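Bump. Still looking for XRE family transcriptional regulator structure tokens.
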Amino acid sequence: MRHALEHADLPTGELDTALRGGPFHVALRAAIAARGLPLQRVQHHLSRHGVKVGVTSLSYWQQGARRPQRPESLRAVRALEEILKLPDESLIRLLAESDPHGEADTPAGRSYRSLVEAAGVLDRLRAELDRPADSGLHTLGHHECVRIGAGRELVAREAHHIVRAHRDGVDRFLVVHRGDPGCAPHETGVRALENCRTGRVRRDQDAGVLVAELLFDTRLRAGDTFLFRYAVEDGTAEATHEYLHHFDAPGGQYALQVRFDAAALPVRCRRFTQHSPEAPRSARQELPVTGPHHCAHVVEPRIRPGIVGIAWDWPR
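Sorry for the wait, here they are.
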């Protein structure tokens, strides 16, 4: 049986206020502090309830960096109410009210499962084009500009690549675009802007993936450098909350700029990195949206394998 808030172990000041008014992460932090339990002990108690949650996730929850939403995470929250001797539904109620500044424990539309499924589709489309996973190109510089429209949708993105061939005979580059939930790949397109032209294009509607060849009209030798630009035009999906790029190999500089329409400005913007799609997000940093063009950007001097991205929150 769970204990009421007036249990002697719990002060009725700060914790009582946090449980009444939230937000969730403040109430959770106050409850853990009131019980005097380190996160390792909280994790141990959860495991005794048959729930597995990492110390890192617990830390993110009480910092407000993430918000539990998956079924296993919600089981953990209900167990926490018992472990921390809180009233029934006290933390769950605060979650239902939702903290707009916290991230879900798996971002909408970018779950690990969906990324794995998209990777399988990409392998199939690459095979249809008879293109190996190794493009034969090393990235020296990669600059992207993503444009968000008045409807909060990803309208387009433009990319400028500086590459060096590491084998003879390389004459093309494979563009991959994975749209947001609700996108229509058959209505999206790739435009060659400089030093390339569009070749074959393949699409998968279910995964929201587009793959297109960019032809260089020249064959590079090992050691040759090459510059090219292209744009992907989309604008078919639902409101987007982030843009990320997944790198398989190390390289040179990467710069990402997100440009928001003046009619759709976010209330908060932040950068993040991940070692892999299933890993927790780290290196979070608040980003200003600056200038008359309403842009936020990140610059990585050296590309490392993993994910770099920008996420944002829309006003309600």
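The longest helix spans residues 112-128.

Edit: fixed formatting.
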